[in-house]
Every structure is written in structure tokens, then in C-alpha cells.
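name: query_chain
kind: protein
chains: 1
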Amino acid sequence: MQEQRGPVRLIASDMDGTIVGADNSISDRTVNAFRACMAAGIDVVFVTGRPPRWLDPLRERIGHAGTVICSNGAITYDLAAERVLATRLLPLKQMFAAAEVIRDLFPRVRFAAETVDGLHLEDGFVDSGSVELLGGIVPGPLHQSLAGSPGVAKFLARGADISPDEFLRRVAPAVSELVETTHSAPRMPLLEMSLPGLNKAVTLAGYAKGKGIDPAETIAFGDMPNDISMLDWAGRGYAMASGHPAARAAADFTAPGFTDDGVAVVLERLLDVREASAEAGAR
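structure:
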């Protein structure tokens, strides 16, 4: 599809695999591109599967002080105030019902849950050598650790001896009435579940509407299946060339790969177009 040239008022970007590397880094070129967009008056919102406690790269590298949509749309977070603005939580009853269905399909599955306050996980969800990296989290039965919780932002299922795509293909239709299911881990069979009908696009659309911004005025970037709804909603949705085949197939446009600073390449081109338009209007 030929790219449309129109006004851009909002940039929405995924984090991991799109602008953030496995070592939690963001390239200088990408940092500069986002800062230039903000300086040009373009609203920037990051839309991620990460929980609020894992947003340091945005704060420390880009200096972002605005809104971040976390946990695939379940939490809207004010980064400057370090405050949760809104939540859309999955009730525990639905979560445990989905867990029963999945365990019937895959008896070796292990579960974890993200709440607004932190992570809860069963024994065996993480590798034995990784427990010390959890910052004092003690694995145990979710029925106990989640007792009294109003709900979870994200429910996680980790499989064994199966590809992420096949795990999603088998589980998603079986639990579709209970949870929304996606995945964002390239190689680990790890499913992410939330309130039915909730995804990145739903919460992003609400954010944009509150700002008076239309989808046609939005550019979005992503690389994995959990980004597809957002790429489809935005007037210009860019999948990373290094991203998942399903994301690339769903998006209207493709940005260069992550290691080629693909998001920065597109944003730099956008800023050049804006500058040329401004110069032409001043003549």
C-alpha cells in the first residue's frame, strides 16, 4: 500500500523488539527521533505488554513523562506522576476458569498473574536458576497469593515443548469466552491473557479520543501478535521488518528492522516531511 501523506498528531509505539532491545537498551538514534517528535508537538504514547514497574528505559533514555498504556491495554499509567490512571482487570473467577481449560489441554502448563501491585507466580513458572532474580517474590498457589485481589491485569501461561504460535492456536479458541489471548515472546511458549475484548487498540483508541485525535492522524509501530490490533487501528500501522510474520502480514506498512533503527527511520522521514510542509507554507 502506498503511504498516505497527512497530518500526524499521535505516535503510538510498542517497546520490546520495536524500540527496546533484549538488554533493555534504546539506541541514541531512536531516542533523538522521539525527542524531536515531542519537540515538534506530536503526542507520543507507548503501548506495551510490560507492567508499570518495567518502564525505566522510557524514563531514563527518552525522558518520557507522559502516558504509557501497559499490560496490553489493561493499565493506563502516568509516568511522571508514577500513578495508575485507569485499569481494566480480569476477574479472578474467569481467570481460574481459563486456567482449568488450559491445564486440561496442557497438563504441564504453569501460570502467573500480573496485578496492579506486582507479579504472582506458581512454582515452576520460572526456571529454578531464575528465582533469585524475582526480587523477593515467593512462588506459590495463585488461589492463595491472589486472595482478596479485585482482578488481574494480565494472566500468563507458560507451556513446554511447543512453539509459541502453536500454543496460541490451541489455547485461544478454547478460552475465547473467558479471556482475550495473545503472545509477544518470540521463542518462549508464553501466552498473555486479559479481559475479553481488551487489547492494545481498545485502550489506545480511548486515549486518542480523549485527545480529539482520529486514527487517521496516528502512526503506530509494533512487532508481535499482541500489536496487531493497534497496527490495524492506526491510520498508518508499521510492523517491524524483523517482527513476527503475523504482524507483518497484518500491517499496511513495514518499517526497517529493529537493528536498523526502523522506528527512527520512519520518524525522521516524518519530521522531514513536516519541515518541508512548513517551509512551503511560509513562502
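note: The longest strand covers residues 43-47.
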